[in-house]
């Protein structure tokens, strides 16, 4: 018996990994975070699987499910939204599984911050603009953000920022960002990337509050901030420049030259 902690991806049923879908297809018990994971993902589940919505269960009740599966010797698929490593509340589950002597495996998934970037066809890192990504959130009722990780302090780096759960806190976030980022810094808001009700706003730090009404964006809104997400003229990477030499391209050129060498006369048949 084993528990598989699976990243369900941002929402769309076909953005779960092949590995995650395969495990869902054979697991006889599936626990999923119904408040964050759409039921469409459950299309991958085994037809006879017992499916439980953990939004209605506390941690002890979830633990009881693992114990029941252990007694029945059946695998459990535990679905988390996005990637389990980011705001997944998985550490406390793994501690309990360790105490119970139950084996587990983590299966990564597509995070909502990369899905949001994909929605607007944007890179989050660009040469000479930003080579760092700060993934953060604001304090909520469930857990507080450490004071040293406040957005006002992190903004000093002017790196690309991906701010989870930003919807209701937009005014405070923008005020803190403006301490360091100029008003023309690109801002993208994505609500439920890849879901049927996905919504997108693209503007700047100076326009985002003017062009969006208070309360218009839900808690699960992702905010992307930084010069890198803009689509204006920028420096191109030298990675694919024809005059940029690296190990793999040098080997490929050597093979190509070798393939074009004439065959010695004494090796020609006939």
Automatic annotation (TrEMBL):
Domain of life where this protein originates: Bacteria
Q: What GO annotations for molecular function exist for this entry?
A: precorrin-4 C11-methyltransferase activity
Q: Which PROSITE patterns match?
A: SUMT_1 (PS00839), SUMT_2 (PS00840)
Which pathway does the UniProt entry assign to this protein? Cofactor biosynthesis; adenosylcobalamin biosynthesis
Q: Which residues form the Tetrapyrrole methylase domain?
A: 2-208
Entry annotated with the keyword Methyltransferase: yes
Q: InterPro entries from the xrefs? A: 4pyrrol_Mease, 4pyrrol_Methylase_sf, 4pyrrole_Mease_sub1, 4pyrrole_Mease_sub2, Cbl_synth_CobM/CibF, Siro_Cobalamin_biosynth, Uropor_MeTrfase_CS
Which Gene Ontology biological process is one annotated for this entry? cobalamin biosynthetic process
> Hey, which family's this protein in?
Belongs to the precorrin methyltransferase family.
Q: What's the name of the protein?
A: Precorrin-4 C(11)-methyltransferase
């Amino acid at each position: 018996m084993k528990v598989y902690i699976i990243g369900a991806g941002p929402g769309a049923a076909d953005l779960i990994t092949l590995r995650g879908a395969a495990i869902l297809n054979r697991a006889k018990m599936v626990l999923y975070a119904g408040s964050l994971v759409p039921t469409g993902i459950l299309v991958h589940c085994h037809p006879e699987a017992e499916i439980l919505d953990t939004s209605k269960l506390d941690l002890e009740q979830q633990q009881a499910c693992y114990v029941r599966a252990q007694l029945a010797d059946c695998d459990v698929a535990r679905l988390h939204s996005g990637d389990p490593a980011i705001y997944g509340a998985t550490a406390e589950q793994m501690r309990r599984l360790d105490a119970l002597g139950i084996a587990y495996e983590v299966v990564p998934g597509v995070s909502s911050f990369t899905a949001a970037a994909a929605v607007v066809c944007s890179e989050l890192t660009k040469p000479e603009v930003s080579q760092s990504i700060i993934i953060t959130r604001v304090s909520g009722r469930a857990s507080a953000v450490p004071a040293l990780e406040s957005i006002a302090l992190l903004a000093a780096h002017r790196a690309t920022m991906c701010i989870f759960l930003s919807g209701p806190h937009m005014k405070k976030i923008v005020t803190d960002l403006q301490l360091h980022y100029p008003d023309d810094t690109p801002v993208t808001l994505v609500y439920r990337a890849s879901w049927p009700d996905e919504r997108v706003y693209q503007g700047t730090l100076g326009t985002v509050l003017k062009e969006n009404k208070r309360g218009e964006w839900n808690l699960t809104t992702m905010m992307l901030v930084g010069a890198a997400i803009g689509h204006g003229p920028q420096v191109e990477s030298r990675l694919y420049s024809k005059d940029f030499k690296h190990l793999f391209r040098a080997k490929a050129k050597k093979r190509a030259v070798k393939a074009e060498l004439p065959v010695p006369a004494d090796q020609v048949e006939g």
